[in-house]
Amino acid sequence: MPRTPAPSGSGTDGYDIAFRVLLVALAITVPLSNLAWLGGNITAHLTDSGPWADYQPVEALLRPERLWPDTGETSLLIGARIVPIATLLALAAISAVLWSRHRGGASGRKKVAGMAKQKDIEALLPKAITAKARSLRPSLKDAKTIKAKDTGILLGNLQGTRHEVRMGYEDVAVAIMAPRSGKTTSLAIPSILSAPGPVLLTSNKAAGDAYTATLDARAEAGRTWSMDPQQIAHAQREMWWNPLADAKTLDGAGRLAGHFLAASVDASQQGDFWSKAGSNILSQLFLAAALDERPITDVMQWLAFPANRTPLDILRDHGFSAVAAQLKGTVEGPPETRDGIYETARQYAAALLNSEIAAWVTPQKNVPEFRPAQFVTSRDTLYLLSKDGGGGASALIAACADSVMRAATAQAERAGGRLDPPMLAILDEAANVCKISDLPDLYSHLGSRGIIPITILQSYRQGQKVWGDAGMDAMWSASTIKVIGSGIDDPDFADKLSRLIGDHDVETKSTSTSESGKSTSISMRQERILPADAIRALPKGTALCFATGMRAAMLNLRPWYLEPDAGELAAASDRASKAITARAIAKAAPQHHELRNDRVTQPHHA
Description:
Largest sheet: 11 strands, mixed
Strand content: 5-15%
Oligomer: single chain
Number of helices: 22
Radius of gyration: 34 Å
InterPro entries: P-loop_NTPase, T4SS-coupling_protein, TraG-D_C
Main location: membrane
Structural class: alpha/beta
Keywords: Cell membrane, Membrane, Transmembrane, Transmembrane helix
Helix content: 40-55%
GO cellular component, one term: plasma membrane
Protein name: TraD/TraG TraM recognition site domain-containing protein
């Protein structure tokens, strides 16, 4: 509504300036004069040069020698001038810091108007999340005090406050964070370190990453298992896992074959004839090997010789006549088609030809077998490491992760519906090393079983490439917690997030000048709380949090290296990284020696 025009614009501006100057002068002189009076009295008392003067702050500021005539000039200069001014400056600096933190949270960043406040996300704050933990975990029901780590997974601090925001142990999460935006230091590592139960981590890095940062700490909680078929951490083979243990049914064998398919081709290519046919052959051969309790490497021998009747006989002997008939039909079909199908299957499982990789999934003397059913009832940690684009090797990583989560689901059902303590599954670099085809479907029920997956992706499109548009949308929708970090460069996704955050009312002031003077009008308009360009420019150390049924919140991340015990963890991480380097050098030394010997023994030609 338009305001009444002022008769004179310049006169109004002059009064405003004068009033502001007066306020500033009072804000300085009032505290300074009181400090001068207090400082002068303290100086006189300390120097035994006079009694306590009456309260006359103005006199103390302007003419201190009248209040304390027997006090030396130097003493008064220090006590009634220098000390009060220094004290006032210090108080002003402290006030500025406190105000900055109040406006921008613990990190001092500017608060974003319109984002969730404390009351909007009460369900994720300590009081509510603790009450939820008591109801979800029978082991905490009668506990007098509950540690914060037992209540939920720390996501960060609500910006503008020091309130910790946690996801509960029935939530499932997707985190989309670009490289070096804090996904490992602020999400993966802190979550692993504080997990109350078993932990599963997939990763494509070792040194200086979640593996080295958590290895020693998790060893204190339980046993640490490392599956490193491509020697990312150059870990010694101290475990082996049987991927055929869950393949004694047609469904289980099909799931195992599906991991090899997903690791080899994108979601858009998995429906063509050759891909489906190659996957079917693998599932039939995996089933035969599992039923006869053979190692998975026998499948590669059968793939090399399609005419080998051993798998057909095994399937028939165990009552899988229909599956045997399907396999026979493929083997006895047109040679061109048969050879194409078998070659496709060979390519999918080619990693099993590598003896170093195969050793991790075949029985080994004096090496313990990793059993998922035992793991999910422990407080152990399983590190699954694979390189980007690992093909069949990453298929084994995905198969092992899937086996663990399926074992956890079965254990939860036996325990009355939920795991207590819950199991944490950090699927870092999931789109590269852990392509579980039906992961979006698993998201619909894992949280209710006490199995807490956090799938970490670098972009939304990366997830679409693996699970397709429908699959990624399903995972996004099923996630009760969504964390978005800095580095979102996809304009469509950034705009989608902006629309999800919503709009807010913004006051707009306009001023016009006419012959009768100056007039000001105020109107309200709707504006995006965070436009797409602001989401793209999110500073490192901050993240957006979308929780089901709540307003979007801005978080300040809490990297592990800023926590109180960071020094001890950093030292442990450094030791683990140096151990990886030493193992890599030791492994390379014999190869280098052999290469030098080969060069020496080669004949020289004129």
